[in-house]
Amino acid sequence: MLVYYAAMGKSEKSSIRQSVSLPAPVAKQVRVIAKTRRTSANRVLVDLIEAGLRAKEAERKRFLALANRLSESRNPAEKQRLKEELARMTFGE
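Given the sequence above, the corresponding structure tokens read:
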């Protein structure tokens, strides 16, 4: 089991201790990344989580922008393309 400290925000100095059980292959990848970067596994986990949260928010914003374009579009071909793109984002390929 790996333990990491997740920063609450850039302006806050406090951290919350959180235990996380990782599958062995994931833990191995984290250790390899940590060794390559010459940092701790905790730092790698925090960086990966923060990157994942940013990616999730970017995906949400992209989805909402596409949905907005769909609702405003008058072009049937564009509407169909936007619907298909939203479906891929929601359900995968």
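The radius of gyration is 19 Å. Try to locate this feature in the token string yourself.
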